[in-house]
Hints:
By secondary structure, the protein is an alpha+beta fold. It has three domains: 8-71, 2-Layer Sandwich (Uridine Diphospho-n-acetylenolpyruvylglucosamine Reductase, domain 2), CATH 3.30.43; 76-228, Uridine Diphospho-n-acetylenolpyruvylglucosamine Reductase, domain 3; 236-339, Uridine Diphospho-n-acetylenolpyruvylglucosamine Reductase, domain 1 (Alpha-Beta Complex). It is 24% helix and 27% strand. It has eight helices and 20 strands.
Amino acid sequence: xxxxxxxxxxxxxxxxxxxxxxxxxxxxxxxxxxxxxxxxxxxxxxxxxxxxxxxxxxxxxxxxxxxxxxxxxxxxxxxxxxxxxxxxxxxxxxxxxxxxxxxxxxxxxxxxxxxxxxxxxxxxxxxxxxxxxxxxxxxxxxxxxxxxxxxxxxxxxxxxxxxxxxxxxxxxxxxxxxxxxxxxxxxxxxxxxxxxxxxxxxxxxxxxxxxxxxxxxxxxxxxxxxxxxxxxxxxxxxxxxxxxxxxxxxxxxxxxxxxxxxxxxxxxxxxxxxxxxxxxxxxxxxxxxxxxxxxxxxxxxxxxxxxxxxxxxxxxxxxxxxxxxxxxxxxxxxxxxxxx
Length: 340
Ligand SMILES: Cc1cc2nc3c(=O)[nH]c(=O)nc-3n(C[C@H](O)[C@H](O)[C@H](O)COP(=O)(O)OP(=O)(O)OC[C@H]3O[C@@H](n4cnc5c(N)ncnc54)[C@H](O)[C@@H]3O)c2cc1C
């Protein structure tokens, strides 16, 4: 456990990032209120600030000189009930999966496919988290943030956030806003059941479930994720390290001549998404290990820390993979993870 609302020094960030990288924060504070957040953002002693959520989407390659501000704002409130929808306001420091489970417990729908994604609720809009055919934008109503310069509160509607695949206004304006709460619009009944993506249908069938409720969908997603993805508590990782590249259809058609089996998803009439994991696998990296840095044996998209890899070692490996994919396919795969 860490203290809240007190600045500490030389704090190891190993427990605070899912890669388990042992860098230090020269200065560290966990904030439990928006007022405290405002107060520390104004501190002239620490001109540089570094916002930390659940640490599940970052690779730390060096000690952090800036003041690390861990977002520990808590609270889940139902703010409005309509006939078919319930609006829930959630503080940024709530754990995402715990919130998903809270909603399912209240029979509020829309989040079930996003079960077991690590991290904080307040970070979820930044890369518009997504899994199994659902993205955050599908249930997002609005969010509150602080302007990091003026410290004024700012509200963002769904449109303001300009959500796209693993992308948003916040991602393109990194560091300018600190999200303090997110409001969701969840279904109170007539849930939109979405089981067409990935292995959910097969998993439910295995369990003999024909008309699943949201709890059963959540459990199916949890089962699939647990069987496919390494648990960061057992093996340090940050989920998918690279984004799936979206290429012009003409590029895809040319590749298909050499690789007829190339997996793909049509994005639009002119664009195709190719799984980065497949590209990496073709370059021979799946399951490779270099010291304590490696590529997961089942998921070529997941870089792993077998124990004491440094962030620099993992980043060097990521660059090597990126270069190999570029040389073999002439496609640039870009990191999904934030590298510091
Ligand atoms: C095993 C595993 C599986 C994963 N699966 C998925 C998946 O299926 N789908 C998916 O989309 N992602 C997935 N991820 C990635 C990750 O869970 C998400 O990106 C998550 O939203 C990150 O949240 P966090 O709080 O841990 O972010 P952090 O890593 O703490 O921060 C990420 C970035 O956001 C900034 N930030 C943090 N909090 C705030 C705030 N309140 N306001 C403004 N900026 C902030 C940080 O400065 C940093 O730049 C997975 C990760 C792991 C480890």
